[in-house]
From TrEMBL:
Residues 389-398 have a biased composition (Pro residues). The lineage of its organism: Eukaryota, Metazoa, Chordata, Craniata, Vertebrata. This is Integrator complex subunit 15. Residues 387-415 are annotated as: Disordered. InterPro entries: INTS15. Pfam families: INTS15 (PF14964).
Length: 423
């Protein structure tokens, strides 16, 4: 490895970077022939950081830095390499070796080049790079994922007017990247401040994706092995949490803005709410097919608790009423679909801090429990789900005593609840 380093020191910056890429290709192709799990050694990482990101470990060595033109040429070389490399495993390994954060001072340079490379890949439709970026977004800490999302939003929604259509077309080029991008961008724009409210253009693009094909948001989940677990701190397996947050918090967001949202913006959030309910209903089928119904919590109760805590119940008005109506519908359909696993007592305790809302009260009361040994029917769900995988069971709620003069309503078999978005 020292011989390679000395050879690279004699080259110009662009030539040295190209040579490192060539070295990575040989290194990983050779490892894949002998082992199914190649390892990136420390020396290889140092070559990448020294001659591609120019963050040397040796203070006594002055490395040549690339000019802006040379950096653009390097990005074009990377685009061509990933496009022409026929082995997906080699592509993924090299992408990971280049751009996986190491927790050191090279990460800023690493993220800056990653943002430029993915932005270029969107512009020229380099699907192999978008697929590698989708895998990167799935296994990398959310802190870095939202940084990449911010770069793409700035490039295509802010800097160049009219370029949003280019980003929107990645839906047909790489649905998997599109799914991960939605997850990252909804995590970034969490309505915690006025600057973290999605722009009308970004909102319209996400709503168009979700409404046109709700199944798009489930691609990562549907393609993950059942036994797979996400790395600690990574994005969720679906963008459900972020999309629910957008729908529920949007009516309250205009309090922080000087101008009221347009009718088009309100219409987009209403369409998005309908799309979220459709996604949840689709989940019921997929969870049942995978034998995970009542065992896998895709909308975690802890995240719902956090969302409720983010709602501002002060000055209760039409806006908070709309937010609570949407929250109630999401909770109802999530429970029915098996995406949210909690008891009615959990909901009553959680929502007790919110202003009174009729629809929310109905959800907390819950439907009549299924008769024993009755077959599963759409629109019905057990009062308490089976404990999710890896989670301890929550305590059972106390029995609900119905007043004698007000008998419990009976649900007729085959009568489905008409889920409609709250407008």
């Amino acid at each position: 490895m020292s011989d390679i380093r000395h050879s690279l020191l004699r080259r110009d910056a662009l030539s040295a970077a190209k040579e490192v890429l060539y070295h990575l290709d040989i290194y990983f192709s050779s490892q894949l022939q002998s082992t199914a799990l190649p390892i990136v050694d420390k020396a290889t990482i140092e070559l990448v950081e020294d001659f591609i990101f120019h963050v040397p470990k040796d203070r006594g060595v002055q490395l040549k830095r690339m000019s802006s033109l040379q950096e653009l040429q390097l990005l074009e070389i990377m685009c061509s390499y990933f496009q022409e490399q026929s082995k997906d495993a080699v592509r993924q390994l090299i992408f990971s070796a280049l751009f996986s954060p190491q927790g050191n001072k090279a990460d800023d340079s690493r993220m800056a080049m990653l943002g430029k490379l993915v932005s270029m890949a969107v512009a020229v439709c380099r699907v192999p790079i978008l697929e590698c970026a989708a895998s990167w977004l799935q296994r990398t800490h959310a802190l870095y994922c939202v940084r990449l999302a911010k770069v793409l939003v700035d490039d295509y929604c802010s800097l160049v007017p009219g370029s949003l259509q280019t980003l929107q077309h990645i839906y047909t080029a790489s649905p998997r990247f599109c799914c991960q991008f939605i997850t990252a961008v909804t995590a970034l724009y969490d309505f915690s401040s006025e600057d973290l409210i999605p722009s009308p253009g970004l909102l319209e693009m996400v709503v168009t994706w979700v409404v046109d094909d709700p199944r798009l948001t489930l691609i990562t989940f549907l393609n993950m092995p059942i036994s797979a677990s996400l790395p600690l701190g990574s994005l969720g397996v679906t963008p459900l949490l972020g999309l629910v947050r957008w729908c529920v918090k949007a009516p309250l967001a205009k309090r922080a803005k000087e101008s009221a949202p347009t009718a088009d913006t309100e219409s987009f959030y209403s369409k998005l709410h309908l799309g979220v309910l459709q996604i949840l209903l689709m989940l019921q089928v997929h969870l049942t097919e995978k034998n995970l119904f009542g065992r896998l919590e895709l909308l975690q109760f802890e995240h719902v608790v956090q969302l409720v805590e983010e709602l501002n119940p002060l000055n209760a008005s039409r806006e908070i009423e709309l937010s609570l109506n949407r929250l109630a519908q999401v909770l109802q359909v999530s429970l029915s679909a098996g995406a949210l696993l909690c008891t009615r007592e959990d909901l009553r305790s959680l929502c007790s801090r919110l202003p009174h809302n009729n629809l929310l009260q109905l959800v907390m009361s819950g439907p009549v429990q299924q008769p024993p040994h009755s077959p599963f029917q759409p629109g019905f769900y057990p009062h308490i789900h089976t404990p999710p995988l890896g989670y301890p069971p929550r305590p059972s709620p106390p029995a609900h005593n119905t007043h004698p003069s007000h008998p419990a309503p009976q649900f007729l078999p085959g009568m489905s609840f008409p889920y409609r978005p709250i407008r």
